[in-house]
Amino acid sequence: MTDLAVIDIGSNSIRMVLYELGPKGTFKIRNDIKESVRLEEGMDESDCISAHKINQALKTLAMFRRVCDVIECDEIIAVGTEVLRSAQNSQEFLDRVRKEIGIEIRVLTGEEEAYFDYIGVIHSMELKQALLMDIGGGSTELIRVRKGILHESISLPYGAINLTRKFKLNGKLESDKEKKMKSFFRELYSTVPWLEEMQDQDYELVGIGGSLRAMAKIDRRRRDYPLDIVHHYSFKAKDAREVYDLLKSKSLSQRTKIKGLDDDRADIMVAPVASATELISYCNIDRITISGNGLREGLVYDYIYRTRTWQRGSNIETPLDLSIRSVIITSHLNAVHAENVHNLARNMYNCLQPLHHLSGDNDKIIRTAAMLHDSGASIRYYNHARHSFYVVLNSGLNGLTHRELLMSAYVAAAHYKEGLRPEYNRYARLLDEQDWDAIAKIGVLVRIAEGLDRSMSGIVSGIACEIEDKQVVLHTLAMVSPELEIRDAMRAADQFKRVYGKNLTIV
How distant, in Å, are the alpha carbons of 310, 327, 374, 379 from that of 333? Predict the structure, then answer.
């Protein structure tokens, strides 16, 4: 294991995330510490970071260094963004940090910042055609992704803090200020030629950074959304405009009372939300999806690529595969057994297609639930199916929509007995009856698949199905007699009949 600290010095905050790197490109967060230093405040006249802000930053970084020393951190990666790109005295600050604290800060170019944003997001979402937007305190990065590949990017020197200062947005937004601000954004976006090319194409906006996460949190609270998960939260453009209308109509003191908005961000929220809503209007985008990953995670993956034998193009190909593998490793699960259960469940799902009539692509749900059906045992073996629901839902799995994540958690819980729907009704409104039907039908298949690998030795290598009038016959393919495995799998026969309407026979 390697302990890695990533320190991100931005215009609004200084943040350190401690990561524990595991094998095969996996990692988990050990700690996350943030201080709202706001280095850019007061820079409008001199273009220099004030002495007061430099001292605040030095105290914060010294505290971060002590934390790293206590845990004996193996490596510290510290980067600065727009505030250190633009400040006239940034070199003085960098020199003091190096001499007084012993941390070397790398000042990223705008292109580098956009690239690391892309790397962080592409490893946590399966993107085909998207516009990535990272609104920081002093800059905004825009990245165009086509077929999963970064095509164009730009860093604009405007973010939450300097835009708030430019348009004096601390209080309620007056109509004349709003007109000037919207005109400014339209002119700004018109200077990026490839944004106009996107207007007649089907792009989604992927939001990165604290301001856009805060916007999504406000929307979640407005809708009484039952999942407290920011990553892959998706909402429509009209919802973003409603959040903007809510923010612009409030005084600063009123904004601090908006549910979901932290006090330390209330004074700078109008500008980034206005920037995002104007961008989706300019590019004719209908949906926003929030990424919990960005610059810092991009730096982690870059470090892994540079220092480890595991590389892109290995057997880990998708964000979902990587995060499932991470849970398996950190929870000390039997990876061979998990893969056996997945293969058998997928085998049955495919050959029972004429019977279950499930529409849509359920491959991710089957893979996640089958691979992590035993994940709850990391909490306690007894009743571990119940714990598996929580683990799947809260392990930070990537590459899944919230619907897919929730369905995977229910299927994982359903691999033992009847599942948990009555106990988790608070999530029910995120799923429709077709989803519940799929959960029941896939859940019993995972339960049967687990029984057929009861010895965890892969005795049953495959299944052939016969669908008859009153029964389904599963023919096991095995090198030795799987008598005990069949007996265990047949415990799901009653559940199978309730779900599929036919008797179950396994031979």
Answer: 21, 8, 7, 12
